[in-house]
Every structure is written in C-alpha cells, then in structure tokens.
Specification:
Helix content is 48%, strand content 0%. By secondary structure, it is mostly helical. Helix 5 crosses helix 6.
Length: 164
C-alpha cells in the first residue's frame, strides 16, 4: 500500500473570524443610539418629565365692540380679578405671581392674556417665570377670560400712562 500523504494542517493565518467585526459594529450602533437618546432625554434621566408641546389659545377673544360693552367687561373683569386673582397678582407689584405689568409685556393681545389667565401649563412656550411657582389651573369661562383680559390690559395701560 502506498504511503498516504501526511495530514496537511492549514494555517489559520489569513482566515479571520467575522465575530469581532460584527460585534464591534453592533456595539457602535448601540452606543450611537444610547448617545442620541441621552442627548434628547437629559431631563428624563434627571427625573424631570419632558415638556409637552406648547398649547395655543383655542379661542380668539374679541375686543369690546363699543364703549358700553367695554364698561361691562371692565366691571366683570374687576370682579374676576377680585374673586380669583387678587390673592396672587397686583398691577405693578410682585406677589405670589407676577405683576399684571409683567404679564402684559409678555402676552401682547387679548387672546393671549385671556388664555394665560387660566394658568395653563407650557402656555405659549412662555411659561418660564423665574422665581414663581405654577399657579393653580383656573377654570374660567370664555367670557370670564375675556373680561379679565380686558381689565388687565386696560389697567396696565392706565398704569403705564400714569393714570392710577
């Protein structure tokens, strides 16, 4: 019987395992995903909930149509202020809440002031009142919002003009 050739051993040189490459790719992708998530959720990791999209006024409040309506709204607005707002707000003094002067500088029109009067959360992305806690959510009717907004804007306008 002829001699059989010796067992040939093949070198592992040149053959590479694909496992480390695949593993490196998977780890890289996972790290990128975790990093991207971390950038967008720093507040979540700190235990702070992410802000919801800012609501916008769903109701457009109309300006008074005439002098009689303006007088009626001013009277009603004074009543809403006294019953619901005066404990925390004043025309030009900081109390528990910001002054109406500060509020009217931030909210420029009747609809925005009326909307803000309910103390919505994340209101118009302007809810960063440094030094103030969130006010209670007030359930004001559209007419109450309109009246107190007219009253706030009129009173701050009078104060700025020096007609206390």
């Amino acid at each position: 019987m002829p001699d059989s050739p010796a067992k040939i051993e093949y070198s592992e040189k040149g053959k590479s395992s694909k496992i480390p490459i695949v593993l490196a790719i998977v780890v890289g992708i996972a790290a990128a995903v975790i990093a991207a998530w971390g950038v967008n959720s720093n507040a979540l990791m700190a235990g702070i909930s992410a802000p919801a999209p800012a609501p916008v006024p769903s109701v457009v409040l109309a300006a008074p149509a005439n002098k009689d309506e303006a007088e009626r709204l001013l009277k009603a607005g004074a009543s809403v202020h006294q019953e619901r707002c005066a404990g925390c707000h004043a025309i030009d003094a900081k109390l528990v809440g910001p002054s109406y002067s500060e509020i009217s500088k931030r909210y420029k029109n009747l609809s925005e002031v009326g909307f803000a009067s309910t103390h919505p959360r994340n209101d118009l992305a302007k809810n960063d009142w440094d030094g103030y806690d969130d006010g209670p959510h007030l359930h004001l009717s559209k007419e109450e919002q309109r009246a107190v907004a007219v009253w706030i804007l009129e009173r701050t306008k009078e104060k700025e003009a020096g007609n206390d």
